[in-house]
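ok so for the tutorial part 2 we go from a plain amino acid sequence to predicted structure tokens. step 1 is just haveing the sequence, like this:
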Amino acid sequence: MADEQQTIQTGERCRSLLSKGLYINHGLPPGQEAAGDGHFWCGKTQTIFGPDDQLCDGENCRNAARTCYETP
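step 2 — the prediction. this is what the tokens look like for a chain of 72 residues:
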């Protein structure tokens, strides 16, 4: 629960950040999710690197200082 609160405080993920969890967790009740594999990719580049050549992941893609960041 503390992790969820910290996640909310650090900001929303970039709208271009994609993960397998987006697909396997779709439609599940709030607070319930299937296991995700933790792998992310950018919807703009379709690779693990964003347009700014930095790695895409659940932490780095919350940073509005990234030039490629888009609010959800």
